[in-house]
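Continuing from the previous page of notes. For each protein in this section, the sequence appears first, followed by its structure tokens. Read the first protein now.
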Amino acid sequence: MSPIKNKPDLISEYYLRTLSADELKTLQDLLAEDVGAREEFVRVGRDEWLLHHMHHAEGQRIIHLLSRRSRRRSIQVIAAAAALFATLGMLIFSQSATISEMIASSRPSAPVIANVTDYFAVEGEAISVVNNGHVRKLNSTSAIRSGDRVIIPPGCQLSFQYLEEQTDIRLGGNSLVHVKDVEGAKRIRLDHGYLSAEVARQPEGRPMRVVTRDAEVVVLGTSFEVVAEERTRLSVIRGKVQFTSLDRSESRIVSAGYFSDTSEKLEPALPFMKLRIKPELVQTLNFSRKKFMVVDPERNAEGFMVFDIGAVKGRILEARLRLRVTAWQKEYGGRGDLRLYRVDPDQQGEGRRISIAHFSGGAGKGKDLELDLDVSLLSAGRNAFVLTMDKGGNDFWFSADESEQAPVLELKIADQR
């Protein structure tokens, strides 16, 4: 059985994953007996609805938002279902409550638990928050409140620090996260995306918990990274954490320098190391600009990069291509749908193209655009990539010069030493 047993966690988890039969029965009993639980169930259901529909109303996209699991199998408690229907019905059928009006009239009242320490959003994008029916947009001086569901579009970044302690959270673009305080204990639900944390020593009996669709990380004080996609991947930089597969109710302690994930079977944690591979070649196809790699569909300009990973020993666990966004006689970056293909390194972008990564969104000048690669498509030796943009986008210029910051291939590998 899952270790998530208390009322607030079970209600939140109902909207994130398939509960076990025992968990579902526990939640049904709670909703039948506890008025407060029914009210909380309604509040969470309303915010989940807002999260989904806000993006359609504002034209924003989080690529994997629609992969959140369907709620067709509803809780069979008449009072809860009726209350939820009434609440959502008012939102769905109201002709006056537009998203913009909700943002303008929102008055958040939940307690402040953290403050934003770093904020970046590209022009035309916003990092938005839903909390108890209120919708607001964050900025560099915003507070984070208990119950906030934070939506970070592709190309944007957000960091915050908890009050009265040196616990820092960094969230990458294309992330969806729910932050909450439960009786003094920190709870973070990462629905999708990337999270890294530097966690100060937590009070006895009140560890921080980071939950994804299929895993739970219990933290007393450490530094770690979590990636939540089709499965959850954990890398521990400092200290130790407890890592639990919720699908199989299996747990393990993962120490510093070790990696684990929720693959089909929870294998023993692996020691890992990080490598940064510099490019053998960076250039623009069909368009010449020194010190830049240009991607522009109007000019038929495509990026071309070659990396040699022949000297890498050990299984590749993660691979990320990091590109520094720059500009040519302009202050902004770029926006659009970028597609990365693996190609034959000896054919200068010609021949068969195999899709290996995709980015949809914007990134500003001076920021890094990150593409997570399908490691199964990498091969020993030289790997070449072509970067293209769909028509209708705003061209990207990337640094190709080492003095600025050339593209780099970041690898996380199982350490065989």
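Done with the first. The second protein uses the same format. Note its length before scrolling.
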Amino acid sequence: MLFSRGLYRISKNLRGSLNGCRRYLSSRGQNHQFLLSNNYQSTGSSTERVLRSLIFTKNLPTLYSARHQIHNQSSSIIEDELDPFSLVADELSHVANSLRAMVIAEVPKLASAAEYFFKMGVEGKRFRPTIILLMSTALNVQIPELPTSNELEGTLTTELRSRQRCIAEITEMIHVASLLHDDVLDDADTRRGIGSLNFVMGNKLAVLAGDFLLSRACVALASLKNTEVVSLLATVVEHLVTGETMQMTTTSDQRCSMDYYMQKTYYKTASLISNSCKAIALLAGHTAEVAMLAFDYGKNLGLAFQLIDDVLDFTGTSASLGKGSLSDIHHGIITAPVLFAMEEFPELRDVVDKGFDNPANVNLALEYVGKSRGIQKTRELAIKHANLAAVAIDSLPENDDEEVKRSRRALIDLTHRVITRTK
């Protein structure tokens, strides 16, 4: 009964949260920019500290201008109907073929395991390669240092694009490797709507397949011969391990801290996207300022993506998600909806501290989340980060090239898709 009431209230509050988000986003902002503090030392509740770390300054790009109310159904910044994935469809096919070629191994069993999620039909949404390819075009700004010879410039442009496409391939290999390792740690049995690799072939082979993908990514990374880019993506792997360790070894206070949760989320999800976007800018020879805008886009889009993932874990179905719903709470992982619910109902802390081995505690936690604004607040925080990502794109140097403008609109469209996705 508690379980049913909890899910009913979650569903009811989800409908309310969507209406609340529409009201929230219909308001016009003054000229301001959102800055997320790197330290959370302020006093008060963890939610208040997170919200107080949103510092607004004037004379910077308008966040909710008519052009950039990206999440308000009544106004759209998309001048043309754009499908970000179709814009780079040909290159995505090239990336997919390259990935399948790159994971060929001498040992048939290892090759079969390594290509498990690169086979036709189970490649996933290819969300990260799409971002990288669109960012490559979006940053196609004339670099003063490039020679003016058309023939030489064309050769350099082709070579640059090939190197940037390599970043897309490396990013996807690192991502899939992290999924294989995560599924072993979580004892998952499904992924992308099929049996997880550890469930089908066993934990040992799944771990080795993940290691193999990381080694292939390292070889591809070394071929770029750019030490700054190598350092960036090596840091991503460190962050993935750090984030997973943070999740596994939390103290009671850390589990219930929004600050800790956001840092872990950056390490586990947003670091890969943000540093890959920055690598694209560095390969093109852009300034540190432009590289940081690319980084900010990836960071905020990644955070928004994970926040919506946390919402969907409560509101989605196993069929729509391609994995079990309520999987986080069943594994004792505390995410934003629970943390926000805890702010409203401090007594939920006692339930969390007892753990979720007992199904009654899971049901009680769902009851609290269902009657709280946890789902709504999580969506609102995701929307803030999505809008920050849009502001980063709008702040890039102006460019009149139609392909560049189309790719930038597509990157902004992705922020809308992240917020409105259902799987």
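What the second structure shows: The longest strand covers residues 54-62. Residues 150-186 form the longest helix (37 residues). We return to this in next week's lecture.
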